[in-house]
Each structure stands twice: as structure tokens, then as C-alpha cells.
Write a structure and sequence with these properties.
This protein is of the alpha/beta class. The chain is about 55% helix and about 10% strand. The chain contains 24 helices and 15 strands. The chain has helices at about 5-15, 40-45, 50-65, 65-70, 90-100, 130-145, 165-175, 190, 200, 205-225, 240-245, 245-255, 295-305, 325-330, 370-375, 380-385, 400, 410-430, 440-450, 450-465, 465-480, 480-490, 495-515, 525-550; strands at about 25, 35, 70-75, 80-85, 115, 150-160, 235, 260-265, 265-270, 280-285, 310-315, 340-345, 350, 355, 395. A five-stranded parallel sheet has the order 7-6-5-11-12, sandwiched between helices. Strands 1-2-4-3 form a four-stranded antiparallel sheet. α6 (about 130-145) links the parallel β5 and β6. α5 (about 90-100) packs across α21 (about 465-480), α11 (about 240-245) crosses α13 (about 295-305) and α23 (about 495-515) packs antiparallel against α24 (about 525-550). The longest helix is centred in the C-terminal third of the chain and has 25 residues, at about 525-550. It is globular and about 85 Å long. It binds one RNA strand through α2, α7, β10, β15 and α18.
Length: about 550
RNA sequence: GCGCUUGUAGCUCAGAGGAUAGAGCAACCGCCUUCUAAGUGGUUGGCCGCAGGUUCGAAUCCUGCCAAGCGCGCCA
């Protein structure tokens, strides 16, 4: 366990009332490394002066766990902040924890399966950037929750049963027969790549054609997603899993049994008004008795709840109209609707050559995931997509993403990772001038195993070289807080936080590198300390990149 | 009209009640005999949309307003 976590727990146990964030990273390094604001926030309810309360809390901390507080310098400042400055022993323990723990992330005690549904594009064409953003967000979420010990199902829902599939087949058929397109047909240029073997396709019945085109488009989507590093555990087909399985019929029966539906004007309605909505909603249309999206979604989400206790949907903002009705219907059926969270993605647009490209289907300026992948590659695609919070409209800077230099954030972080690896390689191998290896890997590991040695070197550094010591301490604090950032990112379903955290860590590492010579042939112990710090950087940066699904280049 | 989301530096974005609001891009001035200069140090740049309120403390919470995007079909 890291010092930050141990201290947080201690503070929480010492407070008269718990707070959700007992300890914060200090904004101003000169005051300390961590700060506790509990005395300020609790002063009112405790009817005490903040400074007095702070003194009292601090004393209680010292009484409860004198050992822990022995490793840190404390002070009460300003209106009632309690500041903590970690001393070499605490820092040494954190470094050791970073190096020796197989998994530095805290493991969740939540045993419920989490089902994350994302992308879920109709099999009617290429994936566009909205899908791409959802794919990156969804897959990062899956990684994140898995890394924290949750059981997660990554799911793609194939909308292969609706009217749009008939349209697709009709459009393809007319293109093959060189007939004029009808008003709602899919554009020929989108479909033509799937219709190259015209002779064969034209011999199929319309149903067979529909199946064939759909399979080809889906296969293409899978290929593109795979290039993007996005994989799924389940591909759920509406046709087979929701319709043919009888789940859809059963859901209608169950809704009726709960007295949640009624017939009117030849259509089947959901009593959504009585649940607080503006009006009732149609489930089965008049005449055709075809299902609406809402009706199918209700059945599909029940199927999800059969398999998972908690659901996350990554949806485009244009799907938000559905949510309230879906929630109400699920609740009416006795499902734990509050366990369904829907994340809405706002639009992505592109900027290139300094101006924004507006996406428009009509103008033909819709950019596919494949196009952008060709342009910038999977790593830059993923990282840059993740830089913005999904609720935000986001302008993707293509020129920046394709740059192979420090201005491109993904290169910046990957470079830090590769640089760390390179230093470690150098230390353990013959250098370019033929000098013997500086040390063996086993020596680095032995040093990591010896707490007293680490502490001794940190203390020495503290007294001999303030600047280097400062860079070392900043590094250790930043590294030891990474696990906390990951937990918080998972709590808020926000992998963007990790991307930003990685940039900050990379900056911290580059700063350390420029201030501290790692391999110093005149001072082996100091070098071993620094090599271990570099090793911790490599581990944490690598973990972060892995969580975001970005490659970890050994050399650049 | 109603609902959801957004409004922070010229641009793209962080900031989830705490101390002096931060990065990157763009612009300017520096730093390589030495482990990756794909790096780094500095300068310039802010009525945090507006107005109230809550609080010891508000970019953050509440209310109202303004602006933008998206929803509010027996569409898909």
C-alpha cells in the first residue's frame, strides 16, 4: 500500500465524520506533498474553530499511528490546512511498493459483472468518427475496470433486424441491377466496395443478398475495429438473440402482465406517461405491427441484466431521447434500472490545415474511422480521442496527431516510456564505447529489495543535492498517486483522466532525466536508486499506456 | 416550449468545494563533449459566458439569463 492511501485511511478513521476525499495532493510544493482540508470542512458541523480542530485531528493521528506519522513532517497552515511532507523513509517505502507489487492497482471488491456496450453500429456502412470515439472510450473503460479486478463483458450489439436492413438490401439490389436509386437508398459509393462480385450477388435472392452484404459490412467493421485495438467478447445479434430467441415476445408479455401496455389506434403503447413522461410511447406500430427501437431496446436490456449486474452504454448524443422511457420500462419490469448508466458522446470533428472540417453526409465530408486510421495510426487515434471528456464536443487536430515529435502527446508519452527502457538497457549492457555493463539487472533488483539502502540514498541525496532530490521526490509522489488516479477514472467512467495523468507523468520523468544523471560511474549506489526510479517510471507509464490500449515501443 | 450536454488563454483541452486557475498548439528567447534534443528552461497570453445566491472559501454547488450542439416521431 502506498503512503498516500495509508494516510488517507488513517485520517478517515480519526475524523468525527468521514469525508470522501480526506487527503489531496498539495497544489503548492513548498507547503508539503499532501494536504488535509477536513478541519476546514468539518469546522461548522463540529462547531469548532478550524485551526483548533486541525490541531486536534493531527494529534489524534499521531496517537493512533505514531509510526506512520513518524515518516512525515506535518504542519498546520493558513485557515486550517494540515500539510504533510514525506520524508525519505516514506518515499523509500513507496518506491519499493511501486517496484515489488505485481499489481499496483487496488482491486475492487465489487463482484458484479459489468457489461459495457459500445460502438453497436448498424451493419449498413463504414464506421464514422463518432463510432471511433465510442470504440476508443468503450475499450479503454473495459481495460480500466478489468485492471481494477472487475469482471467485464465487452459487447457489440448488431442492429441487424430493422427496416434499415431492408433498405440496405434494396439499395444494393438496385445498384447491382443498375436501376435508379430510390429516395432513401444508401449512397452507391458507400456500398460499391462490397458489391465487386456482381455476377454472384445478382444470382442471390433478396434475402440472401441482404445476409451477404450485412456479413461483409460487419466483417469490415470488425477489421477496422481490430486495427484500432478494439475487441469484443460478445457480438449480440438482434435477429437471433433478441427476436428469434423469443426474448422480445416474452418482454411484451411481461410488460402486459405488469399492466404497462395497451392497444390504441391499432398500435401497442407503453404507459410511459404514468411514469412521469410527457406522453405514452409506441412499442408496435399500427398496421405493420413492426417493433420500434424502444421496444427492442427494452428486451435487449433485459437480456443484458440476465448476464450482468451493472451496465454501461456508450451511446451517441443523438440517442438520448430513448433513455427515460427505457429506464421506466425496465423498472416496471422489476429490473434494477438504476444499474444502467448511459454515457453520451458528443460529436467529433476534424481540424486540418488550421480549419475545422464540418461533417456532412450530404456534402460527402463524413470521415470514416478507416480514413483517419490510415492518416494518423491507431496509437495517435486512440490517445488524441481520449484527451477530451466524452461529454465535450471535440475537434480532433489531424495535423497534430500525425506529427512524429514531442508536440504530439502520444509520442511524448511513448518517448518517455522508451527512454526509460533505453536507460535500463544501457545500464545492463556494454555501451557503444565498449565499456563493460554498468551493473547487472540482479543488482538493480537487489537494491529495490533493501529498504534501508533506498532510504539511505534518498537521505544522502536530500542533504547533498537539493535540486536532484526535489526531482526525485516529485517523481515518487507522482508515481505513487497513479493508482489513485486510475481508481478515480474508473469511478467516473472517464479514461480521459488517465491520458492527462500520463502526460503529466511523462513531463515529470523528462524533468527528472534532465536534472539527474542516472548512470553515474562514480557513484554506484546513487545510480542504483535512480535506475530503480526509472524502472518504476517504465512500469507505471507502461501500465497507463496498456490501460488506454496504446502500444509500448521499446525503442523509438 | 420542454429535456440532456457544453461555455476556462488567439486555438484544442484539463481542472469533480480548498491555498497564487493549469497543459499542449501558435509566437518569442535560451540549453546537446555526457544515459534517446522525439528532450528541456524561460517570456508573452485569463471579467473561468453574464447576473445573483449558498459557504470561512466557488471555475467547481444552487437559481435565473445568454449562446452553441443534440434530443423531444407509429423515423431509423
Amino acid at each position: 500500500m502506498f503512503y498516500y492511501q495509508a494516510l488517507s485511511d488513517l485520517i478517515n478513521s480519526a475524523l468525527p465524520e468521514p469525508t470522501n476525499k480526506p487527503l489531496e495532493k498539495a497544489t503548492n510544493k513548498t507547503l508539503g506533498h499532501f494536504a488535509c482540508t477536513a478541519a476546514l470542512s468539518l469546522a461548522k458541523s463540529q462547531k469548532r474553530k478550524p485551526q483548533e480542530l486541525a490541531t486536534e485531528i493531527l494529534q489524534k493521528l499521531i496517537q493512533t499511528n505514531p509510526n506512520l506519522l513518524d515518516f512525515t513532517e506535518t504542519s498546520i497552515a493558513g485557515p486550517g490546512f494540515i500539510n504533510f511532507r514525506l520524508e525519505p523513509k516514506a518515499l523509500a517505502q513507496d518506491l519499493q511498493a511501486l517496484l515489488l507489487q505485481a499489481n499496483i492497482l487496488p482491486q475492487s471488491t465489487n463482484t458484479e459483472t459489468l457489461l459495457v456496450e459500445y460502438v453497436s453500429a448498424n451493419p449498413t456502412g463504414d464506421l464514422h468518427l463518432g463510432h471511433g470515439r465510442g470504440a476508443v472510450l468503450g475499450s479503454a473503460l473495459v481495460n480500466l475496470h478489468r485492471a481494477l479486478g472487475r469482471k467485464v463483458i465487452a459487447e457489440f450489439y448488431i442492429n441487424d433486424a430493422g427496416e434499415q436492413m431492408n433498405r440496405l438490401a434494396g439499395s444494393a439490389d438496385r445498384i447491382l441491377r443498375k436501376q435508379a436509386p430510390e429516395e432513401e437508398d444508401y449512397p452507391a459509393n458507400l456500398l460499391e466496395p462490397y458489391l465487386l462480385d456482381r455476377e454472384y450477388l445478382i444470382s442471390l435472392t433478396i434475402q440472401e443478398l441482404r445476409q451477404e452484404i450485412q456479413a461483409r459490412i460487419l466483417a469490415k467493421q470488425k477489421t477496422v475495429l481490430s486495427r484500432l485495438g478494439v475487441e469484443f467478447d460478445e457480438w449480440i445479434s438482434e435477429t437471433s438473440e433478441v427476436r428469434a430467441s423469443g426474448r422480445f415476445e416474452q418482454t411484451l408479455k411481461d410488460l402486459a402482465a405488469q399492466n404497462l401496455t395497451y392497444e390504441k389506434d391499432g398500435a401497442l403503447w407503453l404507459k410511459s406517461q404514468s411514469a412521469g413522461e410527457e406522453r405514452d410511447r409506441v412499442l408496435l406500430k399500427s398496421e405493420s405491427r413492426a417493433a420500434t427501437y424502444l421496444a427492442v431496446d427494452i428486451a435487449y436490456h433485459r437480456y443484458k441484466f440476465e448476464r450482468a449486474g451493472e451496465l454501461v452504454n456508450v451511446w451517441g448524443a443523438d440517442q438520448q431521447g430513448q433513455e427515460v422511457s427505457l429506464h421506466n420500462a425496465l423498472r416496471g419490469l422489476g429490473e434494477p434500472a438504476e444499474k444502467l448508466k448511459i454515457l453520451y458522446l458528443q460529436l467529433v470533428s476534424l481540424s486540418q490545415d488550421g480549419s475545422e472540417l464540418k461533417m456532412s453526409k450530404r456534402a460527402g465530408t463524413v470521415v470514416s474511422v478507416e480514413d483517419l486510421l490510415d492518416e494518423v495510426g491507431a496509437d495517435a487515434f486512440r490517445f488524441n480521442m481520449l484527451l477530451s471528456h466524452p461529454n465535450n464536443r471535440f475537434v480532433f487536430d489531424v495535423d497534430l496527431a500525425r506529427r512524429a515529435d514531442d508536440k504530439n502527446p502520444v509520442f511524448y508519452v511513448q518517448y518517455a516510456y522508451a527512454r526509460a527502457g533505453s536507460i535500463l538497457d544501457n545500464a545492463c549492457s556494454v555501451d557503444h564505447e565498449g565499456n563493460a555493463a554498468f551493473c547487472a539487472q540482479t543488482e538493480i533488483e537487489a537494491f529495490a529489495g533493501d529498504l534501508d539502502l533506498i532510504e539511505g540514498q534518498l537521505s544522502l541525496s536530500q542533504s547533498q543535492d537539493q535540486e536532484a532530490y526535489g526531482a526525485t521526490v516529485d517523481s515518487l509522489i507522482a508515481l505513487s498517486l497513479f493508482a489513485e488516479s486510475v481508481s478515480e477514472a474508473a469511478l467516473h467512467n472517464n479514461p480521459s483522466a488517465i491520458a492527462h495523468e500520463l502526460i503529466a507523468l511523462a513531463t515529470e520523468f523528462h524533468t527528472f532525466y534532465s536534472r539527474c544523471r542516472v548512470i553515474d560511474r562514480t557513484n554506484k549506489d546513487l545510480s542504483l536508486l535512480r535506475l530503480n526510479l526509472v524502472s518504476a517510471y517504465r512500469k507505471v507509464l507502461g501500465l497507463g499506456l496498456e490501460l488506454l490500449g496504446i502500444s509500448r515501443p521499446h525503442r523509438m
